[in-house]
Amino acid sequence: MRASLIQLSVDSSDSADERRRRAASLVRGRAGDDLVVLPELWAAGAWAYDRWEHDAEGIDGPTAAAMSAAAREAGVWLHAGSVVERVEDGTLYNTALLFDRDGDLRGRYRKIHRYGFDTGEATLMGGGDDIVTVPTDFGVVGLAICYDLRFPELFRGLLDAGAELIAVPAAWPAARLTHWRLLTRTRALEEQVFLLACCATGTHGGMRQGGHSVAVDPWGTALGEAGTAEETLTVECDMAQVARMRSELPVLRDRVLAIEAPRRR
């Protein structure tokens, strides 16, 4: 299975329409790939809190329409990163969208863990409550977003829901790049899955985003890692490696699911 991570530069000087046109063009150029992944909130800007109300859209909005068409024209599964989704009651969500090769929306995931520590996303957006996996022609894909990487419970839940590959769009801050590298490898290794983490680059909303998009195999080995400029990282994933590793190193079989906390004396 061939996958490409399109590490877009999301800069304050670009408009959402300009980024949509550029992203669609880059996706159309990936014909022959099986899966293409984009970053988190690349159209609206993950750090442009003041723009979210203006740039929010439905899951049938301009970003979804452009990405659906691009997926269909390229003949790829497209994880379109995430959008600022507005629902009927006005609530905003950070919502990931997965399209199939025909451009049909096959998966929607509303980010469960909202970043901000009582500011930003944590106060301006609602939180999702569904663990989402999607069967594809190359394996079961699990969906997570950026800050979710810090919460292993979600990834164990994705594993239990059948995930063999987890796609993680992000706008991770460059200042915490060490954490990004550690967590992406750890989540792949502990769940024995492929993990494709696509992070934006550029400076937006006053935040320098880290880039360094990475593809990690079930052994926790990076198959490829991008730099800090806009680029496309393409890797080959042997999906049979998932079952092979789980058989050769059957740590998941030895899980103890209910460990009681020790009693206080």
Architecture overview:
- The protein is of the alpha/beta class.
- It has helices spanning 16-28, 52-55, 62-74, 121-124, 152-160, 177-191, 240-248, and strands spanning 2-7, 35-37, 77-86, 92-99, 105-110, 133-135, 140-143, 165-170, 194-199, 201-204, 207-210, 214-216, 222-225, 231-236.
- The strands form three sheets. It has a six-stranded mixed beta sheet with strand order 5-4-3-2-1-14. Strands 6-7-8-9-12-13 form a six-stranded mixed beta sheet, covered by helices on one side. Strands 10-11 form a two-stranded antiparallel sheet.
- A hairpin with a 5-residue loop joins strand 4 and strand 5 (105-110).
- The longest helix is centred in the C-terminal third of the chain and has 15 residues, at 177-191.
- It is globular and about 50 Å long.
- The chain starts with a strand and ends in a 17-residue tail after the last helix.
- The mean pLDDT is 95.
Backbone shape: globular
Give me the secondary-structure category: alpha/beta
Query: Total number of β-strand segments?
Result: 14
Please give the radius of gyration in angstroms: 18 Å
CATH superfamily: Carbon-nitrogen hydrolase
Average pLDDT = 95
Please give the domain count: 1
Q: In the CATH classification, which architecture applies?
A: 4-Layer Sandwich
Overview features:
Nitrilase/N-carbamoyl-D-aminoacid amidohydrolase, globular, 6-stranded mixed β-sheet, 265 residues
Task: Write a compact overview of the structure shown.
The protein is of the alpha/beta class. It has helices spanning 16-28, 52-55, 62-74, 121-124, 152-160, 177-191, 240-248; strands at 2-7, 35-37, 77-86, 92-99, 105-110, 133-135, 140-143, 165-170, 194-199, 201-204, 207-210, 214-216, 222-225, 231-236. Helix 1 runs parallel beside helix 3 (62-74).
